[in-house]
Specification:
Strands 1-4-3-8-7 form a five-stranded antiparallel sheet. It has two domains: 2-50 and 87-142 and 227-355, no CATH class; 62-75 and 145-220, no CATH class. Helix 3 packs antiparallel against helix 4 (197-219). The chain is an alpha+beta fold. A hairpin with a 4-residue loop joins strand 5 and strand 6. The chain is built from five helices and 15 strands. It is 18% helix and 41% strand. Keywords: Signal. Pfam families: DUF4831 (PF16115). Residues 1-21 form the signal peptide. This is DUF4831 domain-containing protein. InterPro entries: DUF4831 (IPR032265).
């Protein structure tokens, strides 16, 4: 199998960074129709910072003014909205490096050779059915908790009351009655107990709903929802004290130039980087690569601070700081089924595994 640098103009689809967990992989078989050659891209690195933001919306109850009098609880009397920076996720993500596009040319007779690529043309595997490891979803993303509670089944006297104060008194009495009913069922102090465990569960669930709905008339409702604010960083060089976004407890995550929030700052330093080559040396080095070209990424250290606290500190792979290597062409010269399978990392272009026909790592 021969490999050469490709200067073909290929239409590529961009990677949607917020959907990496659902990367689509397409299989391309090497055959006469494509001259046993398949074009692929190696990726270059973008660093993705995901800020997990929790929003809390509070609406006071219609009887909140009487919570202290009847329930001995101090509650907020005005609606409010607040945000909390609950966490950060930092990862490397690969996008097609159009300056490093190659062609894999299988020799005719090689048994069923194929290559898998992402929809963006980044190499995923050779003779490998394995798919990229999926990014773990963020727990609770896009979900609302604490939705508005339905009104309780208050007695008729509540609607007939001539004042809000009287309504509060009736609602408080109803709340205590519901709680007492729950205790009586648990202790068996009722004229007629539910006939079985399932019936008891239904009754207790209903009483709990009534209790919470009545309580919300006094204490109000709180709705919580989670979202993600993403920042994409090009790690062309080390970064020091860069404001990547801002955060406000009243407004949430904001763009870096929005002075309404406090700055969230990022440092990116080098841990491992390939030796620098002159343009001429680099061209000669790449020209001499004979085989399946892949990346050996460098390593960077990311540190993110907010209001004097370090929210994240960890290592990331940076392809631009690494070098390129190649696998020997003779690996795929066999005309039998002994050719290995190779799995690549679609975010770095590095090798994840090389396995023999028996499935064991080589």
């Amino acid at each position: 199998m021969n490999i050469r640098r490709s200067f073909w103009a290929v239409m590529m689809l961009g990677i949607a960074l917020n959907s990496l967990a659902q990367t689509n992989i397409i299989r391309y078989d090497a055959n006469k129709s494509n001259d046993f050659g398949i074009v692929y891209n190696l990726p270059k690195t973008q660093i993705i910072v995901e800020a997990i933001v929790d929003r809390e919306i509070y609406t006071p109850g219609i009887l909140s003014d009487y919570a202290l009098k009847y329930l001995n609880q101090r509650v907020k009397l005005e609606p409010s909205e607040s945000y909390r920076l609950s966490g950060l996720r930092v990862r490397s993500a690969g996008i097609p490096d159009k300056e490093h596009q190659y062609v894999i040319e299988f020799r005719p007779g090689t048994v069923a050779p194929y290559v898998t690529l992402t929809t963006a043309g980044i190499i995923n595997g050779i003779n490998s059915k394995a798919k990229p490891q999926e990014e773990a979803p963020i727990e609770g993303l896009g979900k609302r908790t604490g939705t508005r509670k339905q009104l309780p089944s208050l007695p008729q006297e509540y609607n007939m009351a001539g004042s809000v104060s009287k309504q509060a008194e009736i609602a408080a009495q109803y709340l205590f009655h519901v709680r007492e009913s729950s205790i009586n069922i648990v202790t068996g102090d009722v004229d007629q107990m539910p006939k079985d465990g399932q019936a008891m569960k239904i009754v207790m669930d209903r009483l709990k709903q009534e209790e919470l709905a009545t309580l919300a008339l006094f204490t109000g409702d709180t709705i919580r929802e989670r979202s993600v604010y993403r920042v994409t960083i090009d790690p062309a060089a080390p970064i020091q004290n860069r404001i990547i976004f801002r955060f406000s407890e009243q407004l949430g995550a904001l763009d870096a130039d929005n002075l309404a929030g406090a700055p969230v700052r990022l440092d990116l330093s080098i841990i491992d980087k390939a030796p620098e080559l002159s343009p001429k040396e680099q061209e000669k080095y790449l020209r001499n690569l004979k085989g399946i070209v892949y990346n050996m990424p460098g390593i960077g250290l990311v540190k993110i601070d907010y209001e004097g606290k370090t929210l994240f500190k960890g290592q990331v792979y940076v392809t631009q700081w690494g070098t390129k290597q190649c696998l020997a062409p003779k690996m795929f010269k066999d005309r039998n089924d002994s050719s290995p399978s190779i799995l690549f990392d679609i975010n770095t272009g590095g090798i994840v595994s090389i396995k023999g026909p028996d499935g064991n790592n080589l």
